[in-house]
Inverse folding.
């Protein structure tokens, strides 16, 4: 099956710093990539949808200036959490969409802890 | 609004069978997914149903009734490694996934 990687797998940072998370589709081209956030014991919450070469579409309530998404190529999307605060601590998961609308391949996730 | 309902937690015994139910209300419908998620890991795909009926895949089966807005995931011959959260997600008319909160399945020896 299709493989999506994320880097880093976990990160601890100080409040006020910025953190970049990379999401790569290793063996397929992901026209669309999705970024999710998951708090403990809660379901996945879609943050934004990005299409290669265009601006991301953010879900209601997600600050686009705080969560910067770049999808520069068909195999790489990045999420930058700017000026991170403790409430941004969460599990961030990306997924890449395949050619069929019902295909979505998840990365292993990045656990962010902001002190 | 759009909504997915599934039980918060279930407990079953190793070797037994368990059925996890999911009801959905979405604007349009383009299929229903089941994912398995172990603690601290990303979800892994289990099944996709878009037509009514039962789809069997090894020890796991998934059922869909579009008229009732209902699906279930059936796990047979339960193993300890099946302890995980099971997420139900419906694809709406905009091909956006609407996620349930997940059902935590606890398997006891």
């Amino acid at each position: 099956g299709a493989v999506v990687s994320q880097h880093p797998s976990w990160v601890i940072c100080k409040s006020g710093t910025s953190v970049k998370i990379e999401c790569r589709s290793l063996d397929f081209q992901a026209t669309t990539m999705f970024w999710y956030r998951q708090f403990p014991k809660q379901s996945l919450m879609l943050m934004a949808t990005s299409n290669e070469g265009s601006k991301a579409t953010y879900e209601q309530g997600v600050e686009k200036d705080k969560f910067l998404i770049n999808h520069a190529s068909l195999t790489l999307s990045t999420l930058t959490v700017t000026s991170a605060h403790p409430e941004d601590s969460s599990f961030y998961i990306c997924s890449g969409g395949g050619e069929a609308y019902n295909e979505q391949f998840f990365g292993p996730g990045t656990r962010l802890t902001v002190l | 609004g759009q909504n997915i309902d599934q039980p918060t937690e279930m407990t079953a015994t190793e070797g037994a069978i368990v059925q996890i139910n999911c009801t959905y209300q979405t604007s349009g419908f383009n299929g229903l997914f089941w994912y398995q998620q172990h603690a601290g890991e990303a979800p892994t795909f289990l099944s996709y149903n878009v037509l009514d009926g039962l789809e069997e895949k090894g020890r796991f089966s998934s059922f869909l009734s579009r008229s009732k807005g209902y699906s279930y995931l059936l796990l047979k011959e339960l193993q300890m490694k099946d302890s995980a959260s099971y997420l139900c997600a419906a694809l709406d008319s905009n091909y956006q996934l609407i996620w349930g909160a997940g059902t935590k399945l606890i398997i006891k020896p």
